[in-house]
Amino acid sequence: MANPRIISIFNLSLVVILIIIGFGVYGNSLGNSFVWDDELLVTGNLSIRSLSNIPGLFNTDLAPEVGGNFFRPLQAISYTIDYTCWGLNPFGYHLTSILIHIANSLLVFFLISFFIKLRGSKHSLNPGPYAPSRFAGMDSDIVAAVVDRGTYQPRSTTAATVSPICRMFPRAVPFLTAVLFLVHPVQTESVAYIAGRADLLAAFFMLLALLFSLDGRKIFRLLLSMVFFLLALSAKEAAIILPLLIILCHITLRKMTGRANNERLSPAGWYYAALFMIALIYAMARYFIIQSGNASLSSNPYSFYERFLTGSEVILLYLKVLIFPVHLRMERVIYPVTVLFSSGVIYAAIILSGVVIGAVRAYRRSPIIFFGIVWFFCALLPYMNWFPLNAEMAEHWLYLPSIGFVLLFAIFAETIITRGREAKTFRTGLSLLIAVIVTLSALTIRRNLDWSDNKAIYLATARHSPESPRAHYNLGNIYLAEGRLTDAVREFTESIRIKDWDPKSHSNLGKALIGLNRIPEAVREFETAAALEPSSPQGLIKLGAAYGMVGRLDEAVRVLLKAITLDPAQPDAYNNLGSVYTRLKRYDEAELAYRASLRLNQGMVEAIFNLGV
Are 544 and 580 in contact (CB under 8 A)? Predict the structure, then answer.
């Protein structure tokens, strides 16, 4: 019989190893800058600048300055705490994200350990298969003790079939699942990207809620589980599917332990009713606070039919990303599927039908495999495109579903490693498994570099997703700021090729063309931008300045006066208007325009100079 103290030390050592691996894989992201939406949610978000603002975070949008239709107060609170500790030093924000991710891997380890102990050692590296019926009617604590301490040995066990390492390592599948979850490159979009913290926080509290729901005999634990559910909802809307995951857990436990023990493990009906009531109240509260029941409805114009067909193909893309995590990208351009019998939909139907059949068979033969399959699809439900979202696919949406995938891989790896009867087979299988983990870790470390700054992530996105107009537009802005005008023109032109109705791309292309002294071309771009967004005073101001450059002075006066009508608080409009009036020798009107500009901006050097002249 194993010494309980040795077991505790061994389990603690596994926890320490996970922490070391986590920092080893994500340590190089600590020096990364704020990128992409980090500037919107952190550096430009005034609501996180004081702890006194925390109560107000519960009745507003995540980014109140611009409005993003996301009710995530816990995410904003985490940024507020970071700002209090670190100011605007990105190191601290990255450290927080890494710590939460490591904590999530530990919770995954504890959750899968619970199932593996109750299941027996069929999917741990204890020798031999333990049939679930062997434990039917036994107290769960006894089952756990029997499995954990190795007091039960199957009759078929021989020294030739099982390595001593196997007998010493009863937590192989939970540990391997946690390691794979920790190092998989697909997680970088949630961990190395500060704005992706919602996935980390939601997963953390969802896993806690799951763990505390696994003993239905203790009311206090169930109440804590409901509190954690509320916290998960305040981190991300997708946490609303937690009741389904809890039901999945208890269905799996029922199959593993038998009816008698399940009555001791499963909560009473009031608990499930309370969970669904919390979800309903949350949905109603969110609707009235944000004035919308869905996130970013307006950005997805496709019908339910198109989204449903597209979602079936996207599921296959998600599986591909998990199996071959290369060429990862922040944005993926997914074109809507409109034909029911397209090749992609047919392939998806065949593969998904096979998965469903496999899940049904696994429920009868190996409930832990059933658990992994259903977990993946259940956790992916909010992102199936059945509801309008702001994208058809995003890698960070795999953060929670990936637990089911890596669990299945861990079970598969353990089975392959231990099925042979020779030590050589074990060593070969273990070597291949280590190679997989090292490869995934290396890919993650490399992917972290893509998140080092805006230029790096825009370059990576444009390289792997060349049809993303936003990637080219953002990269064009980087080049424009660096003075690389030819490169900026190339990127803005590419953005317009893909999305020619974006006024910002046309306007910034015009700005780059002016820098290259290609004024007539710039005028055309500013005209296009103004036509696409006629209510934008900034677009009209730029167009007026361009008209002035080519001598179209009367047109310049017209558009500048229109800009002032739209927004009388634009000092640039008055200054440019004064310059045009000066060229038209309408000096009194020019002086009035310059003085109006200075009233709005007393430090405007150009207006001061022009007025002095």
Answer: yes
Interatomic CA distance for residues 100 and 106, integer angstroms: 10
pLDDT tens string 502-558? 999 999 999 999 999 999 999 999 999 999 999 999 999 999 999 999 999 999 999
Question: Which pTM was predicted?
Answer: 0.86
| Element housing 69 (H / E) | none
From residue 517, how far is each of 180, 219, 512, 514 by CA, in Å? 54, 74, 9, 5
Q: Write the CA distances from 34 to 49, 57, 513, integer angstroms.
A: 16, 22, 29
Contacts 24+ apart (CB under 8 A), 494-503: 494/466, 494/469, 495/469, 495/470, 496/469, 498/467, 498/468, 498/469, 498/472, 499/469, 501/532, 502/469, 502/473, 502/532, 503/528, 503/529, 503/530, 503/532, 503/533, 503/536, 503/539
Q: What is the dihedral of CA 389, 392, 393, 396, to 10 degrees?
A: -10
Cβ neighbour number for residue 280 with a 10 Å cutoff: 11
DSSP 26-38: HGGGTT----TTH
Domains of the chain: 4-449 (no CATH), 456-612 (1.25.40.10)
CB contact at 8 A, 333 and 467: yes
- Token pair 């299941």 is found at 119
pLDDT tens profile 303-329: 777 888 888 889 999 999 999 999 999
The residue assigned the tokens 């002035």 is: 548
The answer for residues whose C-beta is within 8 angstroms of residue 580's C-beta and 6 or more apart is 544, 548, 553, 556, 557, 560
Going by C-alpha positions, the residue among 125, 92, 18, 97 that lies closest to residue 441 is: 18
What gap in Å lies between CA 219 and CA 209, rounded to an integer?
13
Q: For 137-167, b where at least 16 C-beta lie within 10 A, e where not — what string?
A: ebebeebbebbbebebeeeeeeeebbbeebb
CB count within 10 Å of CB 356 equals 13
Give the three-class secondary structure for 400. Answer: coil
* Model pLDDT for residues 328-387, shown as the tens digit of each residue: 999 988 888 878 888 878 888 898 888 889 888 998 888 999 999 999 999 999 998 887
Question: How many CB atoms neighbour CB 54 within 10 A?
Answer: 15
